[in-house]
Amino acid sequence: MPKIAKGDRLESVAFEYIKNKITTGEYPTGYRVVEAKLSQELNMSRTPIRRAIINLCHSGFLVHQYNRGAFVQNTEINITEFFSRMKLVELLVYESTEKLVLREDYIVVDDIINIAEKVIYYEKNREYELMRGAFEDFISIFIGKLNNDYFNRVIQDLWNEVHDNATNEVKLIVVSASDRISEELSNMIEILKSWNYTQLKECFQHIMNAMILIAF
């Protein structure tokens, strides 16, 4: 049983415990996760465990089957699975854009601009591995403007999974679309500097379309 420090959220403890079982292979693909068993192992009620299981389903580690329960998902990320998860990224980017457009509070965008410039620099110099990492950071920072810890964790888990479990075809998507990504990020930088954020969604949609066309 993991040690639970004072102030730790039980849901987070359960999330990391189950996730570790999956990533180490102790829970193989197809393994059914049982709340009652976990409740005994972790010495906590089922409520935080149930929430952790729901979050693990959202993160792609588990899949829920109606009237059967939650099962360990196949961890290999192919092209179809990648774009299924990128749909969530797209929605969160749009939510973040709405916050910028509405200007609900003063939001600093210098960090978004700086990382976008890094992506463009790496693409120009054909440093594609660095470019892909910087693009992932760009998405994470952009979505981070929502100030939602859960969304931040989901996005970080997505990138970690892509690094660890994606097929070679998936890993090449961003590289193959690098010129279009660089072009659209240049447009986004100008938009961010102008404070006229309404076209940000369109730029990101162009990036998604470019990756989809290359993949399929």
TrEMBL record:
Keywords: DNA-binding, Transcription, Transcription regulation. It holds the Pfam family GntR. The keyword Transferase does not apply. One of its GO terms (molecular function) is DNA-binding transcription factor activity. This is Putative transcriptional regulator (GntR family). It comes from Listeria ivanovii (strain ATCC BAA-678 / PAM 55). The lineage of its organism: Bacteria, Bacillati, Bacillota, Bacilli, Bacillales. It comes from the Bacteria. Residues 8-75 form the HTH gntR-type domain.
